[in-house]
Amino acid sequence: MKQQKAKKSPEQRQSEVDHLMDQFLELGFPLELPGTQEFIKITKDFVQHGHSASGTIKFPEYHRVMEYIFSMQPHVVSRVNITSTIKKPKHLANTPMPKSVDLVTV
Length: 106
What we know:
The protein is α+β, with helices and mostly antiparallel strands. It contains two helices and four strands, in the order ααββββ. α1 runs antiparallel to α2. The radius of gyration is 16 Å and the shape is elongated. The model has no long low-confidence stretch (mean pLDDT 88).
């Protein structure tokens, strides 16, 4: 008989999503954006149905792209990374410029 693998509980999934969503909303992305709506749909599906997901969501209005991983495996922390799609001009090549924001669960 095959042993079932451990999975995150609905409460664990909700806790991860709440933390990531709080950080995401603090960045100021409007709820009306198609990318924000897609992100909300993916997180609801993860919490309610336990469907793992990974991929990217584009936010062309803000020149950003989001990479996300929502895993059901207890040892894998769900995470989101938002990066800029703007290329740095050559004359600013040596100037520090934040390229991405990592949203992490605690």
